[in-house]
Amino acid sequence: MYNFIFFTNVLRILDERHMTKNELAERSGVSISFLSDLTTGKANPSLKVMEAIAAALETPLPLLLESTDLDRTALDALAGGKMPNSLPAGYERVCAVLPEHRAFQVKKWGEETRKKLRDMDATQKDY
């Protein structure tokens, strides 16, 4: 499932940057044949290969693995049932592209929410 999220994000970024697989192969040192297999779901990349691709795309690796445009239904289907969720009910992880001033506010909200979740977790461990 994470391979699917990874290669979906790689293809999206290539498209956004008007970059070809050949350019990515040159920048990452990963063969074009492996990239083709990867982006069609036929290859299983190692962490080292994923790091090389992320560096070539100038994108943090966690972003390529966690963020996705896929909806919950698609993720559940990929997981073969229910996609595991590390967040409590009522919380959702999102990815967005925002202007700096709006991103600043969203980051603040994220910090507040992470603190609230840590506090909730600490309270539950006390019982």
General description of the model:
The chain has two domains: 79 residues, lambda repressor-like DNA-binding domains (434 Repressor (Amino-terminal Domain)), CATH 1.10.260; 39 residues. Helices cover 63% and strands 0% of the residues. The longest helix has 26 residues. The radius of gyration is 17 Å and the shape is globular. One of its GO terms (molecular function) is DNA binding. This is Conjugal transfer protein TrbA. It holds the Pfam family HTH_3. It comes from Alcanivorax hongdengensis A-11-3.
Question: What topology emerges from the helices and strands here?
Answer:
Blueprint: H1 2-16, H2 21-28, H3 32-39, H4 47-56, H5 61-66, H6 72-78, H7 100-125
Helix pairs in contact: 2-4
CATH domain class name of the largest domain: Mainly Alpha
CATH topology of the largest domain: 434 Repressor (Amino-terminal Domain)
Count of discrete structural domains: 2
The proportion of strand residues reads under 5%
Describe the largest sheet: none
Task: Classify the secondary structure makeup into a structural class.
Answer: mainly alpha
